[in-house]
Amino acid sequence: MADGDRIVIVGAGVAGLRAAERLREQKFDGEIVLIGDEARRPYHRPMVSKALVMGTERPSDVGLSHYLPDLDVHWRLGARVTHLDTVERVVHLPGGESLWYDGLIAATGVYPRHLPGSPRHDPRVRILRTVEDSMAVRRCLNASKKPAVVIGAGLIGNEFAASMRHIGRDVTLVGHAKAPLHRFGDRVSSGIVEAHHEHRAKLAMKSEVRHWISTKDTVGLHLTNNQLLVASVVVLAIGSVPSVDWMRGSGLDISDGVLCDSKLFAEGASDVVIAGDIARWPNLRFDETPRRVEHWINAVESARHAADNLLLGHSSAVPFTPLPRAWSTLYDTRLQMCGMPSLAEDTVTLADGITGFVRDGRLVGVSCWDKPRAMLDWMAELDRRLPAPDYVPEPEPAPAAEVPTVEPALAGLSAEVPPEFESGFDAQAFEREFESEFANDIPTTAFPAQSPPTTALQAQSLPAGALPTMAIPMGR
Amino acid sequence: MPLRLPGSGPRISVDNDRCELYGICAMEAPDVFDLGQDGRLRFHTRLLDETTLEQAKMAARCCPMQAVVMRGDLDG
């Protein structure tokens, strides 16, 4: 990015704010436009299922600070981007407004998943994502003394149940898993079951809702374990889906979040970086499989890294290889997690009651139940055992990993391609083009004339583009 | 640059009503914060050099409870 350029950040959550902050820290002095669909400045979203829903913090208390004399950002709050055009480099806003960019940072996060069959038109059936959601849940709680119900045994479900007990409301947690938080390991899982029991929160595990009964003042739920619950409010917390609809038709891969390379650049665009929950990138510290990480600290770290990389440009950018960290408070107990427990095949008990997660004999994650001091040591240990691979800047990424697999019938053909183009500009991108060209050719042999012109065009434009010849490592 | 008054240097405090002693700050800023074996958090309130200031800002950004409060000239 050069001075005087415009960087547009879509998503005004913690990731959007931290990206803007980092751009200014790195002395970017062009225009920054920060677009968010909520009407509020960035706030501390983890409070929504805790202090805000309990009423112990007011919405005005949970704003996020930045640590700069002046952030100098043009805020576009209450505006939802409707469409992205990566060719023209424009984002479209309601009312026919379009906003050009030189660089784009996408950080739109996730939205709570819909539970099929749930009556979302009922004002007592709610999700928990925004400050307004927490206020709506509080209104329901104030309107009726009936118990609260939360569906979903993940972190938000458990946090909400604990929050309800904190303010003295009866609550039932409904989940189809065998135990709450079972993906954190048995120790954490049994810890939370015990804590719910001790605080008299009811659990209905291995069950789902069979029927919903909406009445004037309450919601009835008939569960598959034949229990009947009558609730003042029902919170749906069964996970989330990435908010990437606005990128539909942009040419980016949005099958699960946005597919990125290891440097957080969106695949298929040289001036779009992705931060936060929607980034699906290969964390080379673990392996080369692109994955999303839905942790709050990851939003902070990926946003700063994405901002750095956008300013450096793709060729000088560095892979993002964090050690993911997560935390929660359930009742008065701190739950912490580090690494990637979801990759593990097995768990082991480590010193100090820490659970270790093991894949192929290697420690890939740790979790703990109220042992922050020991957790610090184990996080440092995990960092030593899973070092971030040394990154050697190279003009071209290693070809082996990225070349699409070739069908046996085509293998002979494609093998001839590399020598022909290797001396040229961007052998790899060209090869990919060439192969998809062949793949396309097979069903449509009747119309061979249609595809070559486009390929010729792209073949010319590709070498001039992002990747290889002009790679002059700068900075770092 | 404006005249720097004595005592206007960067400094931090921790909101004890919010802090739940996760120790994330001690990981981000080991020169500033220390979570002791007794589970108590100790920290330096005055940030003397650029490195500790940057560390402390990162601790404040990553604090799960957003309990780290920074004051004074943050420009470094």
Question: What does this protein look like?
Answer:
The complex is a heterodimer of chains A (476) and B (76). Chain A is α/β, with parallel strands linked by helices and 476 residues long. Chain A has 12 helices and 26 strands. The relative contact order of chain A is 0.10. Chain B has a single domain, classed as Alpha-Beta Plaits (2-Layer Sandwich), CATH 3.30.70. Chain B is 24% helix and 18% strand. Chain B is built from 2 helices and 4 strands; from the N terminus they run E-H-E-E-H-E. In chain B, the strands form 2 sheets. Chain B has a two-stranded antiparallel sheet with strand order 1-4. Chain B has a two-stranded antiparallel sheet with strand order 2-3. Chains A and B meet through helix 6, strand 22 and helix 7 of A and helix 1 and helix 2 of B.
Sum this structure up briefly.
The complex is a heterodimer of chains A (476) and B (76). Chain A has 476 residues and is of the alpha/beta class. Chain A has twelve helices and 26 strands.
Which structural traits does this protein have?
heterodimer, A: 476 residues, alpha/beta, FAD/NAD(P)-binding domain, 4 domains, five-stranded parallel beta sheet, 12 helices, globular, disordered C terminus, B: 76 residues, alpha+beta, Alpha-Beta Plaits, two-stranded antiparallel sheet, two-stranded antiparallel ribbon, 2 helices, 4 strands, 18% strand
Give the arrangement of secondary structure elements.
The complex is a heterodimer of chains A (476) and B (76).
Chain A: E1 6-10, H1 14-25, E2 31-36, H2 51-54, E3 74-77, E4 83-85, E5 90-93, E6 97-100, E7 103-106, E8 110-112, E9 125-127, H3 131-143, E10 148-151, H4 155-166, E11 171-174, H5 186-198, E12 202-204, E13 209-214, E14 219-223, E15 228-231, E16 233-236, E17 240-242, E18 258-259, E19 272-274, E20 279-282, E21 290-291, H6 296-312, E22 325-330, E23 333-339, E24 346-349, E25 355-359, E26 362-369, H7 372-385, H8 399-402, H9 408-415, H10 417-422, H11 427-441, H12 452-464
Parallel strand pairs in A: 1-2, 1-7, 2-3, 7-19, 9-16, 10-11, 10-16, 11-12, 18-20
Antiparallel strand pairs in A: 4-5, 5-6, 8-17, 13-14, 14-15, 20-21, 22-23, 23-26, 24-25, 25-26
Helix pairs in contact in A: 1-6, 11-12
Chain B: E1 11-14, H1 24-28, E2 33-35, E3 41-43, H2 50-62, E4 68-71
Antiparallel strand pairs in B: 1-4, 2-3
